[in-house]
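Q: My labmate handed me this sequence with no annotations at all. I'd like to see what the chain might look like in three dimensions before we decide whether it's worth expressing. Could you predict it?
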Amino acid sequence: MHNNVLILDFGSQYTQLIARRVRELNIYSEIKPYNKLPEDISSYKAVILSGSPFSVRGEDVPHPDLSEIKGKIPLLAICYGAQYLAHFNGGNVAPSATREYGRAKLSYIKEGEDFLSEIGEGSQVWMSHSDTIKELPESAVLLASTHDVENAAFKIDGEKTFGIQFHPEVYHTKDGTQLLKNFLVNIAGLEQDWTPDAFVETTVAELKQKIGDDKVVLGLSGGVDSSVAAMLLHQAIGKNLYCIFVNNGLLRKNEFENVLDQYKHMGLNVKGVDASARFLDALAGESEPEKKRKIIGKAFIDVFDDEAQQIKDVKWLAQGTIYPDRIESVSASGGPSAVIKSHHNVGGLPDYMKLEVVEPLHLLFKDEVRRVGKSIGMEDFILGRHPFPGPGLGIRILGDITAEKVSILQEVDAIFIDGLKKWGLYDKVWQAGAMLLPVNSVGVMGDERTYEKCVALRAVESTDGMTADWVNLPYEFLQKTSNDIINKVKGVNRVVYDISSKPPATIEWE
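A: Here is what I predict for the chain of 510 residues:
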């Protein structure tokens, strides 16, 4: 493995952004919960402590043993982490007179410090805390202040230990990437060698060693993640990879046929399985989102079990699971972050399915997956495809699912997505789709009163799905799309556009 940065998660929703910012510097980072420190710290060249919703002054606060880290390995403590260092090393942390949240500017920077190299007074930072460090430990040296926060940055004298009360990982901290580079490259001495080419070389070698001559079955979805995973496995084990593309009845219009045709040109061994009726029967009458996800996940496993048994001596199930799937599902490697939703491809397999799991992409964010795909020569039209949820339209139909509802939403979605492509907007959007709402509304078509379905359109900008902003699509496009949907899709008489960002609203409605 390359130079490793260990990020200890104290429950901040920003922890994932720290990992991404570090990786953007071509330095490998991984997240571990504060209460599950790796037994062997020696492989890590630097450690970062995340923020937290906790207060260091409270009871039962996150309190890890840093005796093998502080003073021995370069350490950067962010927000709660900085307050933790101060509080438990002789400093004083107290409630702020006012909550310190939002943009601030550095008003003082100590000269000649490598930690703040190329960062000047007036640089914008992002604060998010209700406590503040009133007094630094005796061993600490003040490095930077803002107008309202005197102890915005400090270091421990004689150590490569630093604390900051702002968040360098968020976009609003304009020199955040420079600060992280100063710490990781200039101070900790890490090499910037975490590149797509290096990942491919390492991963293919590891897959060859791990799998050997065993057979692997992989569920393809037509999306970026499973396609890149398939190509990595194909490089590693060739003909021993057996790909299965399942039509769960919840795909986009004509997607089953289109995706199978797409894979013909990639050299993969792919079998198409139409299990639409099986999924729709299993979902009949169920409207609760998490239960729908679990039903779809179980049906996937059942289908794969049936198909895998037809492949002699298959031993592995490959999945395109990526890092955000795991972070949202199991709270940053089991740490204290809040669980948002479950993913159908996370959580293991039932005992009756005697396959081991291999996940070539489980350490990557979505943008990294695309860069890896480009590195191995995959075509842009595959890598540029919008993410599509594993449960498909099953979580874009709010309420219970029927074949009629699926058909309606497929038509609506096709008009929306095709329109984005025709207007040259598709590649400017990270993800787009339509939702079928469980409400009818009154309308007038011709001289007749109608009482039909309402659909919501959603288009967002993002890099990895952890945060997202709604896209300001042209009014003319929305007007034309709305007219086309209402005129061409029987059963829909109202179209709305979702202008919610994540957070607080997730990208999918369920």
